[in-house]
Amino acid sequence: MSRVPVACHVKGTVALQVGDVRTSQGRPGVLVIDVTFPSVAPFELQEITFKNYYTAFLSIRVRQYTSMHATAKWVTCLRDYCLMPDPHSEEGAQEYVSLFKHQMLCDMSRVLELRLILRQPSPLWLSFTVEELQIYQQGPKSPSITFPKWLSHPVPCEQPAPLLEGLPDPSRVSSEVQQMWALTEMIRASHTSTRIGRFDVDGCYDLNLLSYT
User: Which PANTHER family does the record match to this protein (predicted)?
Assistant: First the structure.
């Protein structure tokens, strides 16, 4: 599936103090990043990529048209997606992340705006964000591939050539097998015919006796 980058404007980070998140002043545990698309018509979002920087949980909301004649409204399409780094080794603290539309909780068509809600409840990492944010939309669909008709119902002019030359004709082989079967049945039915081509046992003994005399 093809994708096309979307020109976007990432607004400045807004810090929020929510619920029981206790952090120092100026370094709250929740950040909001709004993304707008001023030069792009409503589009179908295909993928979101970014570099995580110590963010623990990510939620995404989009403002979109849910129907043709309705006004645009905000919809939550991803809730508390875990990006938590390893608390001991800090593994995963600065990794690139890709999120696709099939991971979202709602339809990603006719998107107007995007809002990222970052959360880090741990007091170990008071500084967190996402960097190098890229948005991709659905690209043009690839043309459908048509398979040759002979794969399912070959016609004489479209049948592939035999792999090996000199192969017997199937119809001729079938008739010859039937003839051989009929001849075998005739031989079994005739006791006289079964002795044709065999040695006479009594004659063999007579010849041996003559050789000793």
Answer: NICOLIN 1, NICOLIN-1
Residue 134 lies in domain:
1-18+59-141
Task: Report yes or no on 177 lying in a domain.
Answer: no
Residue 103 lies in a domain: yes
What are the structure tokens assigned to 175, written together?
């008739």
Residue 129 within a domain: yes
Q: What is the pLDDT of residue 90?
A: 83
- Flag whether 187 is in a domain: no
Q: What is the DSSP string of 166-197?
A: TPPPHHHHHHHHHHHHHHHHHHHH-HHHHTTT
Token pair 């080794």 in the structure block, residue = 89
pLDDT for 152 beyond 70: no
Tell me how many domains the chain contains. 1
More confident call, 45 vs 185: 45
Q: Across residues 69-96, what is the average pLDDT?
A: 87
